[in-house]
Amino acid sequence: MVKAIRVYDNGGPEVLKWEDVEVGEPKEGEIRVRNKAVGLNFVDVYYRKGIYKTALPYTPGHEAAGVVTAVGPGLTGWKVGDIVAIGGNQLASYTEEQIIPASIAVHVPPSIDPIVAASIMIKGMTAQFLVCRCFKVEPGHTVLVHAAAGGVGSLLCQWASGLGATVIGTVSTEAKAAQAAEDGCHHVIIYTQEDFATGVDKITSGKGVDVVYDAVGKDTFQGSLACLKPRGYMVNYGQSSGTPDPVPLSALAAKSLFLTRPLLRWYNTTQEELLECCNEVFAKVESGTLRVRVNHTYPLSHAAQAHADLEARKTSGSVVLIPDAV
Ligand SMILES: NC(=O)c1ccc[n+]([C@@H]2O[C@H](COP(=O)([O-])OP(=O)(O)OC[C@H]3O[C@@H](n4cnc5c(N)ncnc54)[C@H](OP(=O)(O)O)[C@@H]3O)[C@@H](O)[C@H]2O)c1
Prior knowledge:
This protein is an alpha/beta fold. It has helices at about 40-50, 115-120, 125-135, 150-160, 175-180, 195-205, 220-225, 250-255, 270-285, 305-310; strands at about 1-5, 15-20, 30-40, 65-70, 85, 95-100, 105, 140-145, 165-170, 185-190, 210-215, 230-235, 260, 295-300, 320.
């Protein structure tokens, strides 16, 4: 038996229960992993609330790093003691130990701490697909990133800035503004104090931006469209403030805009894509060109507090849950 978070009903952070669960032995194609660190992601909140659906009861979590404790029969390429990481689909990672298909795991380079690894499997790979594949950021582009001090936002700003773009970030507080500036934002707008569309208009002298990376959703969507240049790209990759209202095609026709609602899993559909994306993130972390800010850690048993703080916009950078037995 190990300890894990279980959810029996959708609702607030209080539905996250700390319980004993059975782990068992890995079958063919599987490995058992004792988690050293579990990444907290806003998508965990969507599932907990029932905005994204999964069968109840379930163990939450999509991102973790840990040590292999058993290898399924006949499986090669993996051994007990390997440090591995996972990130992506619903993976039940809020647990001390779990069994996963080996095909979704990657080996973590020895120079990368498992706590850092557990923060970049989803957040780093999301930054990668957004700036390298969804809309390809190039020198000369002007990019608007909402929630620029968040887990994904921090990495996205660094990556876009490193590619030579002018980055405009939005954040809610002065402290988050300071972090966003350190992460490569050339301009930071505190959108709780100033209308961000007006701010972008001033910064770009009325030209607008090439792309908006918007994961705030409901509160920012309309303003984001207003910030775009003709033929600009609206990338709505999340909805931390709620689901945006439906968009009439006429809203895009006004400036011949492109609109996409991308998900990481559709950019890493094969093991090759996963490894290529992940290795690029690891390489950037190892070379120091991507700084991973693990600004908050909580014991895994305190996941409810971590959820409450994430939803209350009290966190910045990555939030990691540490299994109590580690
Ligand atoms: N499409 C994909 O494949 C994919 C993959 C990973 C993540 N995502 C999305 O990326 C976003 C960021 O994820 P994350 O885990 O890194 O979270 P995060 O950005 O660390 O946290 C969310 C941030 O959103 C901002 N926010 C604005 N309005 C909010 C509200 N009403 N309630 C809560 N937060 C609000 C806050 O920043 P301020 O205080 O600065 O406003 C808050 O810190 C999420 O929307 C997530 O769903 C999408």
